[in-house]
Write a structure and sequence with these properties.
Elements: E1 5-9, E2 32-37, E3 45-50, E4 55-60, E5 66-69, E6 76-78, E7 85-88, E8 148-152, E9 155-157, E10 170-173, E11 176-184, E12 187-193, E13 201-205, E14 213-217, E15 222-224, E16 235-247, E17 253-266, E18 273-278, E19 312-313, E20 322-323, E21 327-332, E22 338-347, E23 353-363
């Protein structure tokens, strides 16, 4: 995909700062303004931002379905940007015919988080299911323990042009697959097929320690390059499947699954940390490295959603979403660099969503 990054230099020119990586640049302490795009109001792309290099990588969010952890565990994630959902079946025989189950879905008012149909939005992979950890159970070394999953592939990227200031992210339903995943040495073996098929396709997927995940498309049957190397990105701009507080018919608190646009996650698995600062405590302009509170980073070690949707107002029946100007964020990358980040706009000059402007400066 074409990289969409426009740099507006504030007071100082960029200069090379690394003998190891010619793509890295010195970020002026006075601030840098970045205009980033996920492709407009259909938000077709996921954009990865590396603050130290002032660089991005953009990928079509429908280009992948599953991510295979490169860590010591054997965990597999689903593509929440498409509202994918999965359900473990009782069988380990993938040749058996299956039928779609409409309840296996992402839905704001009906699909409970504890159904375990989606990955926990914190990004923490470990857990016993029921909404904790990955929706697909950890892949067992014992083949017979690895069950078949019914896979709702979610929605294609919409091509509908919404009203100015609005979004249209969900296109046509992408259909269903059945999937079974096994271990293959220190990697994975995936078996997949259409629901009624009595045969299946099998592929092996290797781990790569330089990346958080190895990605795979069930549509093309190929490995896909998605995330940059885990040490080379800090923030991901994306649509996102989240948990949302709600109440049941008896007015008891519950959590349901819900799809967000304009969402930002941090690279917690790669070592990026982040916390929010309210301007009533300290203004963005006055905030210095001496003001950093290390303890405030703790939450982001186990939750990638510290920025999430908190940087913007959600809008309503008579108002469009807008930037929250009463806050900014402190980001610490895996190399130990500190940055302050504030958001300036969520639309371009034509008022189109999916175009975010932010300012950031390194703290020295």
């Amino acid at each position: 995909m074409k990289k969409l990054l426009f740099l507006s230099i504030a007071l100082l020119s960029l200069a090379s700062c690394s003998n190891d990586d010619d793509n890295k640049v010195e970020i002026p302490t006075v601030g840098e303004t970045l205009k980033t795009s996920v492709g407009g109001p259909n938000q077709p792309n996921q954009l990865y931002l590396d603050l130290s290099a002032a660089a991005t990588k953009s990928v079509n969010r429908a280009s992948w379905d599953l991510g295979f952890s490169s860590g010591s565990d054997f965990r597999v994630i689903i593509n929440g940007s498409l509202k994918m959902a999965v359900k473990k079946l009782a069988t380990s025989d993938i040749t058996l015919s299956q039928v779609a189950d409409a309840s296996v879905a992402v839905g704001g008012g009906t699909t409970l988080s504890n159904n375990g149909f989606v990955d926990n939005p914190t990004g923490v992979l470990t857990g016993a299911g029921a909404g904790i950890g990955t929706a697909i159970a950890e892949i067992s070394a014992t083949d017979a323990d690895n069950k078949v999953y019914l896979v709702n592939l979610g929605f294609a990227v919409s091509t509908t042009q919404p009203a100015v200031g609005s979004v249209s992210v969900d296109g046509d339903a992408r259909g269903w697959k059945k999937v079974r995943i096994l271990r293959s040495g220190n990697g994975y073996k995936i078996q997949y097929a259409d629901l009624t098929s009595t045969t299946f396709t099998e592929k092996t997927i290797a781990k790569d320690a330089a990346y958080n995940f190895s990605f795979f498309s069930l549509t093309t049957g190929n490995a896909v390059s998605v995330e940059p190397e885990k040490a080379k990105w800090d923030l991901n701009f994306t649509t996102f499947t989240n948990y949302l507080p709600s109440v049941d018919a008896e007015n008891k608190p519950i959590e349901v699954t819900y799809g967000y646009s304009d969402f930002i996650v941090s690279n917690a698995k790669g070592g990026t940390q982040v916390y929010q600062v309210l301007t009533s405590v300290k203004t963005y302009e006055a905030f210095a490295k001496a003001d950093v509170v290390e303890a405030n980073f703790t939450v982001s070690a186990t939750d990638q959603r510290v920025i999430g949707a908190s940087w913007r107002n959600g809008g309503g029946p008579t108002s469009l979403p807008s930037i929250r100007t009463d806050r900014f964020y402190v980001v610490k990358d895996a190399a130990g660099n500190y940055y302050k980040v504030k958001f300036l706009a969520m639309t371009n000059d034509a008022g189109l969503r999916g175009n975010t402007t932010l300012e950031y400066a390194i703290l020295k």
